[in-house]
Amino acid sequence: MIRSPAYWDWPLLVCALALCILGLVNIDSATATQGISAETWRQMISMLVGVGVMLLVSRLDLLVFFRHSGWLYFLLLALLGSVALFGVTVNGAKRWIELGGGISFQPSEIAKLLLVFWMARQLTGGVEGSSQGIKPTFHNFSLLYLLLGVPTLLIMLQPDLGTAIVFAGVGTAMMWCAGFNWRWFACLIGGALALLPWGLHDYQRQRIMVFLAPESDPTGAGWNIIQSKIAIGAGGLWGQGWRLGTQNRLDFVPEHHTDFIFTVLGEEMGFIGFICLLLLLMGLIARAFTLAWRADNTYDAYLALGVGTLLAIHAGVNIGMTSGLLPVVGIPLPFISYGGTSLVVNFAALGILLNIARRIPRL
């Protein structure tokens, strides 16, 4: 029996909305001096827009994206290419497009979701409603990675190593689940790692070197990692309390309301706050993978898998880099970090999962 159109997957909704509330609390603490900060208000507006997008996507016929996947790929390339033509440079990287009136958006965030739709269509073998997938031949493997490499290269040129890792990671995970030979992945990843140093900018190479020994440049490239680890460690078990974190209030950690929002949570909410965050993220990601496992057609399964992988990579890389376990690459924490484009895209991804959940037969 198929669930009614009015069905809501409450585990998904509860986890996502709880993460949003947690994000608003920490953004406000990171940006406010007194009262509610302007960044918090803007994040709340983005949240309302995101909920509207989620409701819309949860009711759409997702097969429309299946039938027009070729156009989605060209739209993906157009969005990334538009950054080179019309983008504005912030902190040495050209990733944003200004729309006027103080409104801007990050095309690469939208491109991530378009990639999931396109990859899901390719891995089904192009047969609508099929329960079979693409044949895991070397020809298909090479062709998919060639097409995946074009947008990844455009992102590297911005430069945005974090988003490039997301693109490569999501594509690789989805193809891995399609049954391609693991040896091909091993060869490709080995070759990519060997060539990576020649494709990085000087500051990106420096970040990797500093990750290995942050104390070698404590007031320069190693500053972020050192101060981030101090902030998280200062939280202890229960944290220092909302708006009471010294590293946060004294701005020791740069970008602590965006990419380094986890340091605010760690310092002010402590280990208990981290566990709550981790449980909510794991609940959301596990639910996405559960939907992928239970989907009654290949397309829905790959969509849910792609969304779950997208969220997992974002969460893992962000928490890893702010904890000093991974190099700093600049990537938002889902539903937590400040950023309108990222938040709206996260809600659109949630809408995809809700859409799939409505069409899964009851156990």
Produce the secondary structure layout.
Layout: H1 10-31, H2 38-59, H3 63-67, H4 69-86, E1 88-90, E2 93-100, E3 103-105, H5 107-123, H6 138-156, H7 161-177, H8 182-199, H9 202-212, H10 223-234, H11 246-249, H12 261-294, H13 298-322, H14 340-358
Helix pairs in contact: 1-2, 1-12, 2-14, 4-5, 4-6, 5-7, 5-13, 5-14, 6-7, 7-13, 10-12, 12-13, 13-14
State the gist of this model:
Helix content is 67%, strand content 4%. By secondary structure, it is mainly alpha-helical.
The main β sheet shows up as: 3 strands, antiparallel
Mean pLDDT: 84
Q: Counting H and I runs of at least 4 residues, what is the number of helices?
A: 14
β-strand percent reads under 5%
Shape: globular
- What is the number of domains? 1
Elements, N to C (H/E): HHHHEEEHHHHHHHHHH
- For this structure, the quaternary state is single chain
Q: Which segments are poorly predicted (pLDDT under 50) over 5 or more consecutive residues?
A: none
- Give the neighbour order of strands across the main sheet: 1-2-3
- What percent of the residues sit in helical stretches (DSSP H or I)? 55-70%
**How many extended strands?**
3
Q: End-to-end distance, in Å? A: 9 Å
Please give the radius of gyration in angstroms: 20 Å
SSE-based structural type: mainly alpha
Explain what you see.
The chain is mainly alpha-helical and 363 residues long. The chain has one domain. It is 67% helix and 4% strand. The chain is built from 14 helices and 3 strands. Strands 1-2-3 form a 3-stranded antiparallel sheet, with helices on one face. It is globular.
